[in-house]
Specification:
eight-stranded mixed β-sheet, Isopropylmalate Dehydrogenase
Length: 330
């Protein structure tokens, strides 16, 4: 109920996910029953057996302070969703609502995996070889410590193995230079911890390596990672705007733009947040996917499909087992 276009986009996205999955799973829509039923009726899906509604009378809005919202609105759709996961009625939680409330709810209501001091959210960045570089953290916290970066590297490596299918993912530490002598206090403290962590640590990497095949996972402070993510997300609107401006200069330019538009659309698809839906929150006792407040039905659909894949591949369980064993590879 907390997204910019809720519950319309959430209901449409859920139905799309069910159709694409050929009925592999059920979706529980947590929120105000009357509004959800209205959308289901509009889409001719009132009797869909794979859709359930969990009544929640309150909404934690984007303007609400996260922790206060969780405490004051215990019958909100976010709290209801986490309750369903915690109680075993659902296997994953997906939300386009208040990001801070989702992160706080996952930590407070589901709890952290033993050995995780700070959960992390990550995002994938396309690169020329057709693969992706995963970056952790992209905004769960703005003041990461060296021990947190070690945890991000371990959890990110497992996610890369299970979801992207990368064998023994390489991990880089984001810095202002490849040399070990360059960096800030956080980089200097984190490097030796990463070397001893058991991950395939390759050393320092620079900002330009995010879009290269230099390594599979990059770890950094959440402040830097979030700025990087927002910058990357802004690229598509800028390029579309420049193309439109170019086309407006004359009929010949318009024809040229028309010829390249479909190619550009395909190339830039990997930069579009809708293709990935949302970002995974790793380090909590349950699969959690966080989406944009402006998520489209397509984005909601892909968030649900990603959540189902994480459940099917036991990502949370493998992170738990790895941290309990104290090493990434046996």
């Amino acid at each position: 109920m907390g997204g910019d276009f809720s519950p319309k986009n959430e209901v449409e996205g859920a139905l799309e996910a069910i159709r694409m999955s050929n009925g592999r799973f059920r979706v529980i829509l947590a929120g105000m029953r009357e509004e959800i039923e209205k959308e289901l009726s509009r889409l001719g899906a009132s009797s869909n057996p794979l859709i359930e509604i969990a009544q929640a009378s309150q909404v934690i809005g984007m303007e609400d302070e996260p922790v206060a919202g969780l405490r004051q609105k215990k019958d909100s759709s976010i709290v209801k969703g986490f309750d369903l996961v915690r109680d075993g009625a659902a296997s994953a939680f997906v939300s386009a609502g208040n990001t801070g409330a989702v992160m706080s709810g996952a930590t407070l209501l589901l709890g952290r995996i033993p050995g995780v001091s700070r959960p992390t959210i990550g995002s994938q960045f396309p690169r020329p070889d057709g693969g992706f570089t995963l970056v952790f953290d992209v905004g769960s916290t703005v003041d990461s410590k060296a021990i947190h970066l070690r945890e991000y590297a371990i959890m990110g490596s497992i996610y890369a193995e299970q979801i992207l299918g990368v064998t023994r993912p390489s991990v880089g530490l984001l810095s202002v230079g490849e040399e070990r002598s360059k960096g800030n206090e956080l980089v200097f403290e984190a490097a030796p911890l990463l070397e001893q962590s058991g991950v395939n640590f390759i050393g320092n990497v620079e900002g330009g390596d995010v879009f290269k095949a230099t390594c599979d996972v990059i770890v950094c402070d959440g402040f830097v990672g979030n700025v990087m993510l927002k910058l990357a997300e802004s690229m598509i609107p800028v390029m579309r705007g420049r193309l439109k401006k170019y086309a407006a200069k004359g009929i010949l330019n318009k024809l040229k733009a028309g010829i390249t538009a479909s190619v550009l659309r395909e190339v830039l698809k990997d930069f579009d947040y809708q293709e990935f839906g949302g970002v995974p929150l790793l380090g909590v006792r349950g699969v959690t996917i966080i989406g944009h407040g402006r998520s489209t039905p397509k984005a909601i659909r892909n968030m649900i499909l990603k959540a189902e894949e994480m459940v099917r591949k036991h990502v949370v369980g493998k992170i738990t087992e790895t941290l309990k064993a104290g090493a990434v590879h046996s």
